[in-house]
Each structure stands twice: as C-alpha cells, then as structure tokens.
Automatic annotation (TrEMBL):
It comes from Streptomyces ipomoeae 91-03. The lineage of its organism: Bacteria, Bacillati, Actinomycetota, Actinomycetes, Kitasatosporales. Residues 147-229 form the Core-binding (CB) domain. The keyword DNA-binding applies. Residues 7-17 have a biased composition (Low complexity). Belongs to the 'phage' integrase family. PROSITE patterns: CB (PS51900), TYR_RECOMBINASE (PS51898). GO terms for molecular function: DNA binding. Pfam families: Phage_integrase. PANTHER family: PHAGE INTEGRASE-RELATED, PROPHAGE INTEGRASE INTD-RELATED. This is Site-specific recombinase, phage integrase family.
Length: 495
C-alpha cells in the first residue's frame, strides 16, 4: 500500500491494515450502524494524519459480506489525476468515495466525487450512508440515479393522480424554474445545497412568488425526490425540509404611492364595474382580493366589516370555494374599517347601476353560505368570480389610459398602491399606527411599522412638550425647531 509522506510517521501501513481488519471483524458484533460510525471516525483520524486508508476499503463485515466504502483523494493516489502527486495534507482537491454493491467481491464497484470531505453533503457522510444502507438491506443502482432531473420530473408528474389545476401549477413551476436551474443535473448528482440555493434564487428572482408559495413548491419538489428514493434511484432525499424564511417586509417607496388626483384618474379610466374597487382600496385599505369580495353584508353604518376575500382559483370552473377567509384570519373572524362619507356615495352610485349578485359557496368548515356580491360578472360570468389577477389587468390598463406610466410605458402603479395610499394618508395625519395596523389586517403592528413607519411625520416637538409638562410643567420655548434637533432616534421611530 502507498504511504503519503507526512509528519505522522508513527502510523504505518501495516498498522493501518490491521486496524481496518479489526474494524471489519467487529461489524457482526457491533451492528452495522455503530460499526460504520466508529470505522468512519477512525478513517477520518487516519486521513487527518496523512495515511491513505486503502485498508478501510478492503474491510469486510462478516455478517453482511459488504465491502466497506473508501474515502480518499485521487490527487494523492491516482497517477492519472492531473494533480498527482499532491503532497499538501490540507489541499482543496476533491474527494472520492469508492464503494461496492452488496455481495462482496461479486458486487459492482462504484465511485462518486465530492468537493469536500466533511459536512452533510461531504464524502464522509455519503460513505456512512452507503454502509448504513447495506446493513439495512437497502440497495440502489447508481445507473438508475444517472437520470437527469428534467426527465424524472416529467415521469413523476405524469404518474401523479392530481387535479388538473394542480397539475398546471406544477408544470408551470417545473418548466419555468426547476428545469432551467437544475434540470440537467442527474438525480445522483444533486445535493442539499443545490436545492437550498434553488429555493433562494427563485424567491429572489423577481418572479413574483411569495415565500409561502416557494415553500409550497419545495414540498412538491421534495415529494418528487422522495419518489426517487422509493424507486431506489438515490439513497436519500436532498430536498427534504428545504424552506426559505419569510423576508422582513420592505418599507414602501413613496414614489409608489399615488396622489389623490391620480387615484381619481385611475377610477375614471378603469372599467366602470371596477370603479368602486378603486375607492374601496384607497378609502379603506382593502387588499384587491378583499375588495372584489365586497358584498351587501360588508356595508354597515359608518364602517365596513370584512370577512372574505376572493380565492385565487375563483375563476376556474372546478372551484367549489369562491371565497376564503382574509389573510392571517380563520373562518368566522373579521375586521371593521371606518368609512368616510365619499365611500358611501360611491357605494350608492355603484348600486344604482348594478344590483348585487347572489353567490352560494361552501366554506372551509363545510357550511353552505350565500353572499350578495358587488363584482360578480354579469355578461360573461357563468358564476365565476373575478380574481386579483383579472382585476390587475383592468387596473394596469386604466393606468396606461390615464397616462400614469413609467419610462418603459408600463403602468406606474399596481392595485396594492391604493392600499399604500390609505395607510400613508392616515398615518401622515396622526392616526395611531396600531389602529391603521388593525384596519389593514396586518399580523402585527411591527409589520405596519416596517412598511409605513417612515411615512409618519416626526413628532419631536410634541414629544418634548409632553415630557416637559410631565416633569417640569412650564411653557417650553427654546427656539429649537424640529428639523434642528437632528436626533436619529425620534419618539415615533422608537415606537
């Protein structure tokens, strides 16, 4: 056996062989998992000392007849390797796992390369996984793992018994995101870091997918790879449990908030049946899907009560639940939002032209419900409800007709801009942030502060007066203006 020259001259090749034989003889007594873990530990010690652990490859478990996997660097052993001979103990050249299928000498020998030795995606972890699979009686064919992910994704999806709408969603995600990024890689060549990077890249790509949507699609990808494990194409599932954390809400850009005059322009140019939605959003802060679900039961004296939003699947013929609870809410919960008189005037004008349309649907608890909705289609409807995406089309068209476009000729605003308008106007005129947060339906006040906190006018002088009156009740007249008190931590920011 070859001996790599290092400072660890006390470890000889003969002792190496004896140690490997000893580990092999202990396999039957200690059990496969314990044996592999201990032998892998000793192997790492030998590798750290610079010893080429050939003997570890030739150890045999007496109970299973399986030849133990070998972890090594070809730069130190294989004369055909372009980096041979490499005499640096801590070099960054790749690592190779050489292993046999169950069956001892008769089992086929395979190799797999890794960029690193340690870690969950390293060579050591794979070697231990291979030996554990042998002891557990699990066998997989590396040739079957050479199938490209793009091919396996198609086979997997074709074999699923799922709803047609779900199939279209999966097909779109696979075609637009999975195949372009990972489709050419083989099943056996995929590592966990590939899917972690993939999920992160998809979310950051600007494709408009929320963190929850990306995580939902990663569950689908994990199921796809789990099927490959069951089919004995790969030993484990590298996509299992891969998720991305929800990003902190970004502060709204003031340039993304329309002026009152621009709100009126959008309402003037949008399709007449959607005029009311523009004022419901800008006047009460509703989400687009909540405005489209507006019904007779929502209108109260001086306020509106919001319980439902239109489902994203409401336009489909097979959709049985056109309405779902509002975001961050469960069925039965609601929020009340005060209304200005102009909102009541717009509602009356809408009802004078279009009568509410009754829609019956089944709630998530199985109870049949009936709503008299304001925005059900009346000419081409066939019972289907307009969704946020359909409304978004009409909204962007209205922006273009009104001349509210950017340098590329695209709509300057989105329906969400009207919700920003409501929040910014309320906060700029002293409405408490916790009230605005509740009306917007945010999960917490923190989300409201993160998004809109910078729009709140600075209250330095008011803060100084309140504290002065509490401690020393005398008139405060120092001549210092708010803009002169250049303190980075104003009271409203601390709140």
């Amino acid at each position: 056996m070859d001996h790599v020259p290092t400072s660890a001259e006390g470890v000889s090749a003969s002792s190496e062989e004896g140690l490997a034989d000893s580990m092999a003889r202990g396999a039957a007594r200690q059990g496969g998992s314990t044996f592999v873990e201990k032998s892998g530990l000793v192997m790492n010690v030998l590798l750290g000392c610079g010893v080429a652990v050939h003997g570890f490859e030739h150890g045999r478990g007496e109970g299973s007849g399986a030849w133990v996997a070998s972890v090594f660097q070809k730069c130190k052993r294989d004369v055909r390797d372009r980096n041979y001979p490499c005499e640096r103990p801590g070099c960054r050249h790749g690592w190779t796992v050489r292993y046999r299928e169950p069956g001892g000498r008769r089992g086929r020998q395979w190799e797999r390369s890794f960029p690193r030795r340690v870690g969950p995606d390293g060579a050591d972890a794979f070697a231990v996984s291979v030996e554990n699979d042998k002891e557990a009686g699990v066998a997989f064919d590396p040739v079957r793992g050479a199938l490209p992910l793009s091919v396996w994704a198609r086979e997997w999806l074709d074999g699923r018994a799922i709803a047609e709408s779900t199939r279209r969603n999966y097909e779109g995600f696979i075609r637009k995101h999975l195949v372009p990024r990972l489709g050419q890689k083989t099943l056996a060549g995929l590592a966990r870091r590939d899917f972690e990077r993939f999920a992160k890249d998809v979310y950051a790509s600007g494709a408009g997918l929320a963190a929850s949507t990306v995580n939902d699609r990663m569950v689908m990808v994990a199921a796809m790879l789990e099927a490959a494990v069951v089919d004995k194409r790969i030993p484990d599932n590298p996509a299992r449990g891969v998720r991305i954390s929800r990003a902190r809400p970004l502060a709204v850009d003031e340039d993304e908030i329309p002026t009152p005059g621009e709100v009126d322009l959008i309402a003037k140019h949008i399709a007449p049946q959607y005029r009311l939605t523009v004022y419901l959003q800008s006047g009460t802060g509703l989400r687009p899907s909540e405005a489209l679900a507006f019904s007779s039961e929502c209108r109260r004296t001086g306020f509106v009560r919001i319980r439902w939003q239109v489902s994203a699947k409401a336009h489909r013929a097979d959709c049985r639940t056109a309405f779902v609870p509002c975001k961050n809410r469960v069925e039965g919960e609601y929020r009340d939002v005060p209304t200005a008189p102009f909102i009541d005037q717009e509602i009356d004008a809408h009802l004078a032209r279009w009568a509410p349309v009754p829609v019956v649907f089944t709630g998530r608890k199985g109870k049949r419900r009936r709503l008299e909705v304001f925005f059900a289609p009346r000419q081409r409807g066939k019972g289907a409800m307009p969704t946020a995406s359909i409304y978004g089309y009409h909204f962007k068209k209205a922006c273009r007709l009104a001349g509210l476009v950017d340098a590329d000729g695209k709509a300057k605003y989105t329906p969400r801009s009207l919700r920003h308008f409501f929040a910014s106007i309320a906060l700029a005129h002293g409405v408490p942030v916790h009230e605005v947060s509740r009306w917007l339906g945010h999960r917490s006040v923190k989300a409201t502060v993160d998004i809109y906190g910078h729009l709140v006018p600075r209250a330095w002088r008011r803060c100084r007066e309140v504290l002065q009156n509490a401690m020393r009740p005398v008139p405060l007249d120092t001549g210092i203006q708010p803009e002169e008190a250049a303190s980075p931590g104003s009271c409203i920011q601390a709140a």
